Amino acid sequence: MARATRTKSLSRSKRTASANRASASQKRDWSRVRFLCVAALMAVVWCSLWGRAYSLQVVDTQNLSGRALRQHLTSELVTGRRGKILDRDNRVLASTLAIKSVFVRPYEVESPYTVSVRLANILKVDPKFIRKKIKKGRNFVWIKRKIDDRTAAAIKKQGLKGVYLQTEFGRIYPNKMLTGNLLGYVGVDEKGLAGIEYAFNKTLTGSSSKFVVQRDAAGRRLFLQGAEETTPLQGDDISLTIDSEVQFFAEQAVQYAVNAYDAKWGGAMVVDVASGDILAWAQAPMFNPNVFGQYSSSQRRDHIAQDVLEMGSTIKPFLMAAALEEKIIEPDSLFFCENGKWKLHNVRIRDTKKLQWLTAKKVLSYSSNIGTAKIGLELGATKYRDYLVRLGFGKKAALPLAGQSSGILRPLKNWTQVDLANAAFGQGFASTLPQLAEAYLVLANGGVRKPLRLVKNFPLREEVLKENSQRVFSEETTHTVLKMMQDVVESGTGKSAAISGVSIGGKTGTAQKAARSGGYGSKYTSSFVGLIPALNPEFIILVVVDEPAKNYYGSKVAAPAFKEIAMRYMALNGTLPDFEKSRLLASAIPSTLIPKYGERRFDVGGKPQVSGNSIPDLRGRSIRFAMEVYARQGIIPSVMGSGAFVKKQKPAAGAKWSAGSKQQYTLWLSEQS
């Protein structure tokens, strides 16, 4: 029995061992399966990774590299600073300053409402306007261009996310209204829109440079790629022939004439005969190009270059020169002036006085329309028109200005005898003031054409120089005409332009303006042209006043303005007789008739008031004002430095005048008041 029991136990043991061996065998089999599965999975993963890596680094490398660069690198186009505009003595007429502008990246803005309200409070605009811009969904939107430094500092202090300040360039005209109509103005993108700014926009505009900028994930700039960076170049400067001092008192004189006679506008040019340089290009009313948007297009208009006017009797010297050159007349040739009324083909020609027999010289001196018309008829339309063309009428003046007019000079086939008679005394054809200046420069230059010059550092083209160097009249003819013009000032219609001790030749002009309905209306253009000295001119001054209301004769309206400009110009050059200097100071143009510039620097039109025996405080005043203060005491101070305004004075304000002693008077100048 015991044996049987052992046999059973042994049998169970064998079955248990067999079962354990089977179980162990099964476990080993699953491990292998798991291993194989993991190995296969790893193989698939690695193959996928290697495949993806191959795709990224080999197949799509160019596309992905470009996308990465676009995300982290961006190019910025930067334009160099716009060049300056300078006068003949390198005084700054137009310059460029760095100015801040504010923009927003809408996708970075967390709270459009908060940002719009805070910006609106600083910029003084409607918050809805800013919120509307921010919600447009673009990556970049301008909020306001060219803000002042205080506003920029206030925005920066807010630290608004998504709001940025960008440095741009802004044009500034430090003399404000001075030469405004000639200089023109630039738009918000620094592009010239009128005047010199427009005509020389390509020259003044700085060259563009490309910057590649690297940014982090937040869009902040990290550095500039030096390999792709080029240095921005500043635009070239333009140097004009304009003399700021001459320009200033020419503008004063013209403004006075316009205000005194309620005229539409007035203009004046001062031309140096030896060089043809235009020293002044003055207009009134004036405008401030710093705030050009506040003025109408008529106020911004360059009337001198663009307005075409019948110049009236200022044309008569050219008819005389042509008739003398063609041997049609002599200075003493007699003409009957019909007692002031003459009928030609049912058209009545009148003089202001009942004149009878006059020599050709007196015809010009008394400005007889009838006598001039008879000389024109003897000369003939063909020859007279040919001389007008050779003088430059009927084509634009050789000046680098856009928008110039060619004037009006009809074809010869359209001229009748009446047209010829009218053209003889300056009606029936029209010109701009620069065209008239070119013609008078021929007389002043001995009968040879000479081009006007407005820009110093840009030479005239070869064909322009060739065309403007031809002889029109002989020296003998021009000398005779200049002598006749001297008589105009000494004993004729130009007596109001006379300056004691100065030889002046000139011609008045009073032209009736054409009416829109046809014929001539009730409006006039008054003008005067003067040459100093009379027989060997060194400079020419032309003045025109359009549509004066209270009086329209050139001798009353334009000639006094010429005289004021001439006296101040001669005083500036030290050629004005001493007894006229004191009269000039005593009869300065009343400042109440000159528009306010808004700064102390422009107060030189009035008489400097000197109280007692003490030196006034001249700091911040214009140099011209200060010089007049000293001149009233018979003192010529020393001037140190450069600029237009007094920075420091010695002796100081409050010290006693001592003109008779050896006291040294010195003024230090600055560009800023």
TrEMBL record:
Cited Pfam families: PBP_dimer, Transpeptidase
Subcellular location: Membrane
Keyword set, alphabetical order: Carboxypeptidase, Cell cycle, Cell division, Hydrolase, Membrane, Protease
Compositional bias segments (type: Basic residues): 1-15
Annotated region described as Disordered, given as residue ranges: 1-23
Gene3D superfamilies recorded: 1.10.150.770, 3.30.450.330, DD-peptidase/beta-lactamase superfamily, Penicillin-binding protein 2a (Domain 2)
Residues of the PASTA domain: 609-671
Protein name per the record: Cell division protein FtsI (Penicillin-binding protein 3)
